[in-house]
Amino acid sequence: MALLEASKSWQGSAPGSVNPDLASERQTASFCVERLTALLDGGAEQTRIRRAVVDAIESDPVFSRENQYFQTQNERYEAAVRKAVHLQKKMHEMGWTENGPEYKYIYRALSGDVAFLLHRVFMRSISVLGSDKQIAKWIPLATQHKLIGSYAQTELGHVGRSATHTVVFAQLYIHGKCYGIHPFIVQIRSLQDHSLCPGITAGDIGPKMNFEHIDNGYLLLRNVRVPRENMLSKFCEVRPDGTYVRQGSQKINYFTMTTVRISLISDEVLTPLMKACTIAIRYSVVRRQSKLKPGEQEAKILDYQTQQEKLLPQLAAAYAFYFTNDYLQELFNRGYREIQRKNFDMLPELHALSSGFKAVITQHCTAGVEICLRACGGHGYSLLSGLPSLYTKILASCIYEGENTILLLQTARFLIKCFMAASAGQPVPPSVTYLAAVKHGKCPAKNKLDFLSPDIYIEAYQHVAVRLTSNTAAKLQDLIQSGVKKHDAWNQCTVQLVQAAKAHCHYIAVKNFAETVEKLETKAGIQKIMKHLCDLFALHGIFSNTGAFLHDGYTSAAQMDMVTASYLDLLAVIRKDAVPLVDAFDFTDKSLNSALGSYDGHVYQRLYEWAQRSPTNQMSPAYERYLKPLLHNTLSKL
Ligand SMILES: CCCCCCCCCCCCCCCC(=O)SCCNC(=O)CCNC(=O)[C@H](O)C(C)(C)COP(=O)(O)OP(=O)(O)OC[C@H]1O[C@@H](n2cnc3c(N)ncnc32)[C@H](O)[C@@H]1OP(=O)(O)O
Ligand SMILES: Cc1cc2nc3c(=O)[nH]c(=O)nc-3n(C[C@H](O)[C@H](O)[C@H](O)COP(=O)(O)OP(=O)(O)OC[C@H]3O[C@@H](n4cnc5c(N)ncnc54)[C@H](O)[C@@H]3O)c2cc1C
């Protein structure tokens, strides 16, 4: 069956041609794809720069990912180190600098397939927490790769086999008094011969689900002396006489995490979902299976409503979170400017939003990639589809940089505090002022079209977020008043606290998407299609969490039917633009590295050709050793 379909699909696939089933999808786009790409990039000039970077990287054979799916962990590591070293040369050759406009596109162009990712986190720690003197000393060394940095915060640090230095987060004690967690630069290996420094035990932790190109390690320090000036001291300092001096909040020492949580959303989390959507949607218009209408040819699987319901909400989420990321970046830039001026007022809000959104976006995008994988049936399970490695990689983002439950509880802690403050009439940060506006009304929607009004659905999301926060705050207070110890009471509320934190982020994501759409240009059909996606994102959230919206009668069962009707209508509308919407992400075939998702849609030809390259198609010693004797034995009996 598979072979038959393959031969069917190959007919007429001249070089450079596009599979007609995919080509036809592009002829009916309701908007200008190039304009949407430019919008996502932040302008046509940015698109030009990004494409130039991608072109320079992809045309260099050292950066090739062609054999990636056939490599062992060691081979991937070695290739990634080679790429990291070559990248330095390439940057020099191309005139790209750390502060230049090209820099932010390099990592995306490499598809993250390069060693020393934590070197960037090491550098970020020094630049946000180090004094000017420390920055002047360490950053040039790190930029030129004269040392290899890592980041050791979790108990069993993560320094592997490459790093020569690390930023260790450890408790600071002076004369027996603990001053809490502080960051220290520690040299762990000789720059001469890479041997471990005295007192250091370190190594690689072994095989993992993904990240074979990155070495993750363990680290033990025994009687290691760290010079006083190696404690990062932009905000906290130990003077030679042992006096401890701090400016502002002690929590500033956690700031690297905040910056990394926001930085990783784009490349590590959104990009995998956008790629997965591109692969699964292109494949879904090439793959024909079963008959939709009797007597007609087999239908494209994307024409099935259930397939649309798998993929299109993921596409809408990719756009929604793309705009959320812009919102977070803007908030971060503002907050960071204030912190540079030693004003820490925005820190709690920044922490709450970066933690909550890191958790919600990674959770949503990871689930989305898995849905895309499964939506491609058996071929999705093949590494050659590109989907399994996207999945195993993005899954880690739910854990690293703060496991998601922990992060949602950090957000909830902030929400409860703000709810209490708002209830007492005290001022609260802008993102939570809505908590003061507890309304007990009902959803005013009268028909399904009303649910395409952002005012209606934003208010519904707001209502749920306020209800979950206020009810949990009340439960917490009741427990404490009834004599339960504060920490026990907190633990008894954590499931609901997590729900409240998620609802808060979901509300902000929907509101931000609607506000973004409002500001978009109306020309070239962009605003219209983005409005459809925004509606779909919002209604999908209601449709899949009906209990939360029905719970206190804010939304009625009849209104839920209206939501369902509008939601399903939208699937059919967006279906028509599904391929142009993923084309606008502008991933090259090399960056997708997928036999299913290429621009030309010649799926079966690629699957067949790529399978030929697999080492599993070479004669295995297992034949000589085991199969041959077994089969020869049979032969003698026939
Ligand atoms: C850079 C460019 C490149 C990037 C792109 C590279 C790509 C690269 C690919 C990925 C590759 C993998 C990279 C993985 C790298 C790791 O995974 S590194 C390890 C990261 N580890 C974590 O994130 C740990 C998660 N846990 C937490 O964040 C916990 O909140 C903490 C910080 C451990 C504290 O926990 P705790 O003991 O409950 O808290 P405690 O000390 O009592 O403090 C709580 C107070 O601190 C506040 N607080 C906690 N955290 C913060 C914060 N961050 N800010 C402000 N306040 C805070 C709380 O709000 C609370 O305040 P109050 O309510 O008391 O006022
Ligand atoms: C690919 C990868 C790269 C990494 N790189 C680095 C690195 O470079 N440097 C570094 O320092 N670390 C790194 N880490 C470690 C990572 O940051 C931690 O794994 C992560 O912060 C979670 O901590 P943990 O593993 O101790 O999980 P745990 O804290 O043990 O969590 C296990 C479970 O317990 C639950 N749990 C724990 N505490 C609570 C609580 N208070 N309330 C409710 N539930 C709780 C969690 O929700 C989770 O379900 C990396 C991890 C991965 C996967």
List the helices and strands and how they pair.
Layout: H1 2-10, H2 20-26, H3 33-41, H4 44-58, H5 73-94, H6 103-109, H7 117-129, H8 132-143, E1 151-152, E2 165-174, E3 177-187, E4 200-204, E5 217-221, E6 236-238, E7 244-246, H9 255-286, H10 305-340, H11 347-375, H12 377-381, H13 387-396, H14 404-423, H15 454-481, H16 486-519, H17 526-544, H18 546-550, H19 557-575, H20 578-583, H21 589-592, H22 603-612, H23 621-635
Parallel strand pairs: 1-2
Antiparallel strand pairs: 2-3, 4-5, 6-7
Helix pairs in contact: 1-22, 3-4, 4-6, 7-8, 7-9, 9-10, 9-11, 9-13, 10-11, 10-16, 10-17, 10-19, 11-13, 11-14, 11-16, 14-15, 14-16, 15-16, 15-17, 16-17, 17-19
The structure holds Palmitoyl-CoA and flavin-adenine dinucleotide.
Protein name: Acyl-coenzyme A oxidase
Keywords: ATP-binding, FAD, Fatty acid metabolism, Flavoprotein, Lipid metabolism, Nucleotide-binding, Oxidoreductase, Peroxisome
GO molecular function: 3alpha,7alpha,12alpha-trihydroxy-5beta-cholestanoyl-CoA 24-hydroxylase activity; acyl-CoA oxidase activity; ATP binding; FAD binding; fatty acid binding
